[in-house]
Amino acid sequence: xxxxxxxxxxxxxxxxxxxxxxxxxxxxxxxxxxxxxxxxxxxxxxxxxxxxxxxxxxxxxxxxxxxxxxxxxxxxxxxxxxxxxxxxxxxxxxxxxxxxxxxxxxxxxxxxxxxxxxxxxxxxxxxxxxxxxxxxxxxxxxxxxxxxxxxxxxxxxxxxxxxxxxxxxxxxxxxxxxxxxxxxxxxxxxxxxxxxxxxxxxxxxxxxxxxxxxxxxxxxxxxxxxxxxxxxxxxxxxxxxxxxxxxxxxxxxxxxxxxxxxxxxxxxxxxxxxxxxxxxxxxxxxxxxxxxxxxxxxxxxxxxxxxxxxxxxxxxxxxxxxxxxxxxxxxxxxxxxxxxxxxxxxxxxxxxxxxxxxxxxxxxxxxxxxxxxxxxxxxxx
Length: 381
Ligand SMILES: Cc1cc2nc3c(=O)[nH]c(=O)nc-3n(C[C@H](O)[C@H](O)[C@H](O)COP(=O)(O)OP(=O)(O)OC[C@H]3O[C@@H](n4cnc5c(N)ncnc54)[C@H](O)[C@@H]3O)c2cc1C
Hints:
This protein is α+β, with helices and mostly antiparallel strands. The protein contains 14 helices and 8 strands.
């Protein structure tokens, strides 16, 4: 399998590079790194600029605002943004694909433009205090009333809830049916009865929140995929959340590693100040990244040739990506603050954040369970 660009991809990449060079990419990245309070607003501005440039949803169907291109093009966007040191593209595709796959025509028309353009912020209300890995154990209740439903309960770890305009919420419409009793609702975050409490992370940011639903009224039209179809909606979300075009932001890590390698090659290394352990770690990180990049491209190639897959490969990718990212940033802080100290501040935050990679979107243990049962055919117990 060859991973070179074809003519169309090369031209797309060239135009994107030109666009990035003329854009506010660097200024926004610096503002984002400098001013923690401004981050949500900076990310939203970047989202809208990427959209106006035509670089978002490139693999979405044309009839819902995409370009109908293959997922290779999503990878090109990730790669070029990473190479340029720009902020990543916003992670809207997995919610977008849930609406594209399960939403009514009216919902697609009403909701997808705002999601893609960044005019409306979205969040994902799945996890609860007692339902994370065991998502089907969720308890937030939705009780039918005239023309709608009333939601009561609590979600937790809802990323970006404090800035979001809408949330895709999984709720229980039937207490007796574990999977078939789950329904997906689009909930406006300004609805009466919603209380949002941000949770501060070890990085200092408050990216995710507890969200309390107390008698929140939601019209019936806001159900996605029909009553009791919430589990299927959730599986689509998770499949795309772990997809190679969403996770394939490897060039950002390569940029970090290139910079470290450049510093390590400096005078001090030649004088023997940087030891063989650092050199070995740099080599290990490089191999991890190269294998990850090849895996991402191979998987995208498979999908392009054979269509959307059932997502088991995504579990392998997610597991491996978390391992590579965590090793990169863990080794980074272990290289030694004296020699590579300029990198320390940024790297340390990245290190702290990388710990979350083996939890969010399904933990590494859960990915291993999936691989064990569905790839290796091992019994569940
Ligand atoms: C940065 C970040 C952002 C997030 N954003 C969102 C969001 O936007 N929306 C949302 O809904 N959720 C979000 N989450 C929540 C995330 O999906 C859950 O944290 C995750 O699914 C794990 O659930 P839990 O935290 O309840 O842990 P638990 O499920 O309680 O797991 C605890 C530990 O037990 C292990 N474990 C559990 N079950 C098994 C098993 N069967 N076999 C082996 N080991 C097992 C787990 O691997 C883990 O180590 C986010 C999490 C993070 C860290």
